[in-house]
Known about the structure:
Elements: E1 4-8, H1 12-24, E2 29-33, H2 46-50, H3 64-69, E3 74-75, E4 80-84, E5 89-92, E6 97-99, E7 102-105, E8 109-111, E9 125-127, H4 131-142, E10 146-150, H5 154-165, E11 169-174, H6 186-199, E12 202-205, E13 209-215, E14 218-223, E15 228-231, E16 233-236, E17 240-242, H7 245-249, E18 258-260, E19 271-273, E20 278-280, H8 288-302, E21 315-320, E22 323-329, E23 339-345, E24 350-357, E25 360-367, H9 373-381
Parallel strand pairs: 1-2, 1-7, 2-3, 7-19, 9-16, 10-11, 10-16, 11-12, 18-20
Antiparallel strand pairs: 4-5, 5-6, 8-17, 13-14, 14-15, 21-22, 22-25, 23-24, 24-25
Amino acid sequence: MSMNYIIIGNGVAGTEAAKTIRNRDPQAEIMIFTQDHYPFYSRPRLPELLAKEVTVEEIFVYKREWYHKNKIPLYLNSTVKSIDPKNQRITLTDKSNFTYNKLLLDTGSSGILPPIDGINTAEGVFTLRTVEDVLTIIKRAACAKVVTLIGGGLLGLEAGNGLRKLGLSVTVVEFFDRLLPRQLDSEGSVILQKQMEELGLKFFLGAQSKSIKDAGTTKILELKDGKVIESNFILVSAGIKPNISLAQAAGISANKGIIVNDCMETSIPNIYAAGDVAEHKGRIYGIWPAAQRQGVIAGINMAGGNETYAGTVPSTSLKVAGIHLTSMGDMLVEDKTVEQVKVKNPDKNIYKKLFIQDGRIIGAIFLGDTKNAYEIGQLLEKKVDVSRFKDKILETDFDIKSLWGLKIFNPYIKIPVC
């Protein structure tokens, strides 16, 4: 009897799961349902689309032919209204329903709107999560001169740079006292801010937004310190919130995200979750590499395999031409047992830093010079002891490959059975 798989959502996790299931089970019936209007596309490339550097089709990862070739029907513009775990059935808003043997939830996340008076009622306030969002913002930008961006995180800076390329004047309002608080420490942030200001972006840091008011085509953002920022529209980039309501209504355990075990299975047998919506060991990653790996593992286990997810080392890069930034791992600056090794050359906009605990790299920042970043990421992931080389490792001419011969730290880990 052939198995019947349903995937809700066509992000990287759902698509990787479908691909993995198809490779393991050529006869299986696999269906993908998504609210999206487009086949699987690269979300990290949305700022390029915003800058009109690529077309929508150019950011597709798989075009429609891929789905036909792999016999995976893709139902676009399809909203799943409910899941009935007892009868293993899903129902769409148009009342059509489908049964499954195994179900994967890749329902993703939505942009958060912070608690600012008038943010929900003011016209001209946008978030950036989908192709549709980008197309709406481009339309708005065509008759605008000035934009305010609430949030100075990775996506915020990339989107701000995209809007700058469209000829807009961009002001970034950030709650924290520095840019990229998750990816940079304060010294690195100062260098990055200087580079972004040279591109033409303006910043209000340590700024709390109080209210948004409409004055015709002008949006008035008032800060808690009384400052007023006027613009033609506002783009909010203040974090993400996993889309868990469908799972919760079906009785699936959720905290901030849908809770999954090491096999990516939820609290209900035969139902799995992966990607931005999944919470593994209390962590929601919200990054592409984690979603990709989780999708593969979910697919393997749904198709009868036995593979466990051991977490992903967080690694992010800023995609703004002329600025090279990669940060990875954990930067527990407050922890007294963490040593810090750094190379700093503000004149050349170079700032590199390693966070080392018990001789092993646990976090790294590369700004301006990302040479050896990949190799250092490998040392971090493999928990290689670098204590003998820690003072030389950031030097540009250091032969990092000489470390590959070292014994790799590999503690005994009890692997749970899926």
